[in-house]
């Protein structure tokens, strides 16, 4: 719409709604939203502000600070904001099944077929004391993020193997309380919603060969490993690039070149780090690695694009 093109948004689902999501936005989100003239509207949602990061491996932890603040905002609030702004700017919202041919495809994450090593995500909001940190707890093949969002809430969102969830009877309360540091962290909090879950999830360590007849954006392009915290920033960034490219009639190949230059190295590092962190001996060494190093390796190059 900023490029003067008419926009029709096909979405048969009810929006806004709560979704399984880390609800954490890295500092890269600010220039992306500023270019879209959405920064002030975003701040009006009163997102939680985070200055620190904490990684917990067993009973050991590593701590660091962000050079710029990160933010926490629920998908319920963020999706409502984006959809409302699109409609206010002239987009036609069509609450029907998506037709066969569209310019931009943003249907969300892909799901894995039946097989071994399937992963599932889960999330719930908790009420109670909030912090100014995003925290990640690694244990038994799981990693679970804890971070504040708007309204004094804390989002607890994780991902882990189906086998591990079966051992706990898919009881997410039992799972989070099975890890002593995480249990102690959540003791002052009270869960205020039912657990949501999604899966089995499918993600890879590199961008796949894209189709040449449509622009893929967000998780439809590739599901980013959640522990990087960049999924929502990349989704909004790629969506804005796709919209601009479609409005200006640019070739899809040119769009995908821009995407690769912004995130391909990050995808590679995500895969390597996740594989390394799944090994027990690496988890013993991980607390001695500054979190800022891990953050720098997984940071997408999207601020100036």
What report would you give on this structure?
The protein has 305 residues and is α+β, with helices and mostly antiparallel strands. The chain has a single domain (8-203, 210-297), classed as FAD/NAD(P)-binding domain (3-Layer(bba) Sandwich). The protein is built from 10 helices and 13 strands. It has helices spanning 29-35, 39-44, 75-88, 162-167, 172-177, 180-186, 231-248, 252-277, 280-285, 291-297, and strands at residues 8-10, 24-25, 48-57, 60-72, 92-94, 104-105, 119-127, 133-139, 142-148, 153-161, 190-191, 196-201, 215-216. The strands form 3 sheets. Strands 2, 3, 4, 7, 8, 9, 10, 11 and 12 form a 9-stranded mixed β-sheet that branches. A hairpin with a 2-residue loop joins strand 8 (133-139) and strand 9 (142-148). Helix 7 runs antiparallel to helix 8.
For this structure, what is the CATH homologous superfamily? FAD/NAD(P)-binding domain
SS-derived structural category:
alpha+beta
State the CATH class. Answer: Alpha Beta
Please report the distance between the alpha carbons of the first and last residues: 18 Å
Taking all residues together, what is the mean pLDDT?
Answer: 83
Number of helical elements? 10
- Secondary-structure element sequence? EEHHEEHEEEEEEHHHEEEHHHH
The radius of gyration is 19 Å
- What is the CATH architecture annotation? 3-Layer(bba) Sandwich
* Poorly predicted tracts of residues: none
Question: Roughly how much helix do the residues carry, as a percent range?
Answer: 25-40%
**Strand residue content:** 15-25%
Number of strands: 13
CATH fold title: FAD/NAD(P)-binding domain
